[in-house]
Amino acid sequence: MFIGPTTKFINHINTDNNVIQPINVNKTNTTINFPEILKNVITEVNNIQSTAANHIKKFESGDKKISLSDVMIDIQKSSIAVQMVVQIKNKIISAYREIMNMQL
């Protein structure tokens, strides 16, 4: 199964030793395009939800290629992806409120 770009953050975990590996950062290009990253994450979450919805429809129509376990896994992936986006939104709002409450 393919989860997509969100896995690039998870891929740095070494499952053999249960150790988190450092992420290689390109020192020359330190510009981070936050709106583009956020747009890509939201697009990926939308793709995950679309895949889950398509698998549900195929399973309900009797497609033998889609099993119940595949449908349940896709539903859980979709749920976790939405929860991730909600938490990102909450952190953004929290950071915004903290910045707005700073004394100058």
From TrEMBL:
Swiss-Prot/TrEMBL keywords: Bacterial flagellum, Cell projection, Cilium, Flagellum
Main subcellular location: other
UniProt GO MF annotations: cytoskeletal motor activity; structural molecule activity
Localization of this protein: Bacterial flagellum basal body
Gene Ontology biological process terms from the UniProt entry: bacterial-type flagellum-dependent cell motility
A GO CC term assigned to this protein in UniProt: bacterial-type flagellum basal body
Any Pfam family the entry gives: FliE
Domain of life: Bacteria
InterPro entries: FliE
UniProt key word Zinc: no
HAMAP family in alphabetical order: FliE
Family indicated by similarity: Belongs to the FliE family.
Annotated protein name in UniProt: Flagellar hook-basal body complex protein FliE
Species assigned in the record: Buchnera aphidicola (Nipponaphis monzeni)
